[in-house]
Amino acid sequence: MEGLRKGIVSRVKRVVIKIGSKVLADPERGVKEEIITGLARDVSSLKKRGIDVILVSSGAVASGVVKLGLKGYPSSIPQQQAAAAAGQSYLMWLYEKAFALFGEKVAQILLTHDDMSSRKRFLNARNTIFTLLRYGVIPVINENDTVAIDEIRFGDNDYLAALVVNLVGADLLILLTDAEGLCRSDPRVSGESSPIPLVEKVTQEIREMARDSTDPFGRGGMVSKVEAAERVCRFGVPTIIANGGSRGIVERIFRGEVVGTLFMPSKKRISSKKHWIAHASRPSGVIFVDQGARRAIIEKGKSLLPSGIVRVEGHFRAGEVVACMDEDGREFARGLANYSSKEVEAIKGLKTREIEKVLGSKPYDEVIHRDNLVLL
């Protein structure tokens, strides 16, 4: 097992490290400065070895709760956003102060789901991060809780971290939490804290082992971490869930020590673009297909042709992401449409050779080409 770990970390050139609220924050005293200082020490050590590090940090709302003198987690969205605004500046000041001790600089990047679901903004965010890394600056990414509402919210920073792995082309994701890793039962109930050292594939049994936390300062839990690991593994990248409160945990991971739970990557890696389509994008509309088209896409890896389309919902332009559903309303794939919703409505059920007669031109044979189509 140690040999496997050493082999994985020896190949890492870029890592995303996500640290959760339950590690960083205390309901009474806010952010724990000693945790950030320890993280800064480990990250500085990685940088000296030529490894790019991108941090995804929670803790803004928890910091704001203490800073504003609130009693408990705020219940309304305006209160949560106010706490995030007050807490984010304090959180970044702590990062600035801690990393300066080791001669390092940090930069704040705040994102919403809209920033990741828009292909243009996704690529702009990537370019910004790469420029910071070239300058030797460590990006510290958080969800923009000050403006985020349900429609543009990631849901939790584990999901955000998984998307950032694809955004920056990382080789490893580390999720730091208050647990030792994924355990067979909730250690707070059973008292058993020994983590499963290796997960080769996320199965239903593995999902059932995860239990969400009821901690008010964190939106995630072990369930969201396992889901994030599964998303990242599809991209061909391993994930390690470990205890962020353990001293020198990142250094120990990069020494190859068997700490936490290692999730192995899928052998069939999907491309960065397909990962974005599947996990970061928000479909602009829905295309319903018949059973023949569904089988051709799933079993034979075919493109979606107009002949298999039965109906269209929503309004989308050519080049936008659409959901592919069967006639029972179950989504099974997503892809980039070659035609607008109005055009697809006009050519649904037709043979490819009939497209030009209806539309006046035929730039594509396929409504969605298989290169831009990903199974869910």
Question: Care to describe what's here?
Answer:
The structure is a single chain. The chain contains 16 helices and 15 strands. The strands form 3 sheets. An 8-stranded mixed β-sheet has the order 5-6-4-1-7-9-10-8, with helices on both faces. It has a 5-stranded mixed β-sheet with strand order 12-11-13-14-15, sandwiched between helices. It has a two-stranded antiparallel sheet with strand order 2-3. Strand 2 and strand 3 form a beta hairpin. The relative contact order is 0.11. It has helices at residues 2-10, 21-24, 33-48, 60-67, 77-100, 113-117, 119-134, 157-168, 187-190, 204-209, 222-234, 249-254, 272-280, 291-300, 341-347, 355-359, and strands spanning 14-19, 25-26, 30-31, 52-57, 105-111, 137-143, 172-177, 198-199, 239-243, 261-263, 285-289, 309-314, 321-325, 331-336, 373-375. It has 376 residues and is of the alpha/beta class. It has 2 domains: 2-270, Acetylglutamate kinase-like (Carbamate kinase, 3-Layer(aba) Sandwich), CATH 3.40.1160; 283-375, Archaeosine Trna-guanine Transglycosylase, Chain: A, domain 4, CATH 2.30.130. The two termini are 31 Å apart.
